[in-house]
Amino acid sequence: MKAPAGFSGIDLNLVPPEERHELVRCSFGLLDPGQGLRISLDHDPKPLRSQLQKLWPNTFSWDYVSADLVCRLLLEKK
């Protein structure tokens, strides 16, 4: 999946599980509005979404691109 302009890709399958949430939180925190992350991993990251909602309420959109064998989503900073 090609990332839209202004989006960086992160394949969390390549990151140790204990480092995944911190990587996404740090990466998201560095984004400017309109930029985002294209995230791929082997499960639906619902706990991560909850964490981001607590840290940055109403400041991002979370859109699933696919959720078959690999969960792919776009996380955009508003």
C-alpha geometry: globular
Look at the helices and sheets and give the structural class: alpha+beta
The strand order across the widest sheet is 1-2-4-3
Number of strands: 4
Estimate the helix proportion, in percent.
Answer: 25-40%
Radius of gyration: 11 Å
Structure summary:
29% of the residues lie in helices and 33% in strands.
Please give the structural blueprint.
Layout: E1 7-11, H1 17-29, E2 36-41, H2 46-55, E3 60-67, E4 71-77
Parallel strand pairs: 1-2
Antiparallel strand pairs: 2-4, 3-4
Question: Can you offer a commentary on this structure?
Answer:
- The chain has 78 residues and is an alpha+beta fold.
- Helix content is 29%, strand content 33%.
- The protein is built from two helices and four strands; from the N terminus they run E-H-E-H-E-E.
- It has a four-stranded mixed sheet with strand order 1-2-4-3, covered by helices on one side.
